[in-house]
Amino acid sequence: PPPTSLTTESLTPAAISLEEPESSTRMRAAIVGLVRNSDLFGLRMAMRQIEDRFNRRYNYPYIFVNDVPFTDEFKKGIRDMTKAKVQFGTLDHESWKVPEWINATRYEQVKRDARYPHGEKDSYRKMCRFQSGYLHRHPLLRDIDYYWRIEPDVEYYCDIEYDPFAFMHNNGFKYGWNIAMTEFMDTIPTLWNTTVEFVNSHPEMLATNSLWEWLVDANGDYNGCHFWSNFEIVDLSFYRSSQYQAYFDYLDRSGGFFYERWGDAPVHSIAAALFLNATQIHYFDDIGYFHPSVVSCPANSRFSGKCVCDESKSFVQNGYCIVRFKAIKQMLLNPNSTESVHE
Ligand code: GDP
Ligand code: MN
């Protein structure tokens, strides 16, 4: 028999309860994903890592949405991963359709001719349109102010020892990202021109200290830089603003989600870079992350700290878009500095 002095209390080290944040400090926030039933394994892997690296201490709820009903197997498999609340929802037809102003003949031809990733797919385009314009308006997200996007097959390589939602709030950040790179330009031939048309008719929407310069090359054309939206932590008041909504509606009307294959990543990113101030956009360079096929490690994380992150595979932070982001943001914060970002 166990020694009588060993009470249940002494089996619960104080350190464990100290790790739990005060419930009052918890934000109205959730970890959110649009996913398929077939993503069960990959999503369980992603959740296992988010739970171990962060959420077992914070218990933020999860919200998953799908264009078809989730199976019981899926719901059980996901609920088994966490003690946090999990909600499952389906989308309405309005948010997952080819709009009536899309010409069917032209669209079919586009899908036949497309020579870029997912170019032949109807579902991928609906997915991108949904994540651009509808996810933040889904009824299950009504009571949350921030979301952290999750996708199947992503990995988290480092402990996250603070609450990124509270961090965003306390610093006035509206958009947080951790991977940026250039887009396949074949998927967005007219996105930039359509954006410029929109901004020309709504010049008051441009933020005073926007990062627009980050988006353009020496000729004033879009350089393709965008934040990867498979990881993004966002103050949803940004996407829910009348400005963002007007921008999305304008893009949607132009048909580019279907006649081309506009991704939600460049759409979100261009909106953030134009309509937010640079000070409202945060680079989470401390979050070790993987989305097939890109690794992003914090500096010096291979042999130190609470990371298992292979820096020898992490190149993206030295790439054009991230180096340029840091330089331009720095310049906007210190306008008197002599450094120039012009090529
Ligand atoms: P990638 O990251 O651009 O390669 O695209 P993914 O295949 O990872 O898709 C992005 C996200 O949208 C993932 O969370 C997918 O599960 C989800 N997704 C993609 N297509 C569909 C679809 O047809 N239905 C649903 N419900 N989710 C989808
Ligand atoms: Mn993905």
From TrEMBL:
Q: Which UniProt keywords apply?
A: Membrane, Transferase, Transmembrane, Transmembrane helix
The name this protein goes by in its record:
Uncharacterized protein
Any Gene Ontology biological process: protein N-linked glycosylation
The similarity comment for this entry is: Belongs to the glycosyltransferase 15 family.
Q: Does the keyword Repeat apply?
A: no
- GO molecular-function terms, A-Z: alpha-1,2-mannosyltransferase activity
Per the record, its GO cellular-component terms are: Golgi apparatus; membrane
User: Which span of the entire protein is present here?
Assistant: 57 to 399 of 414
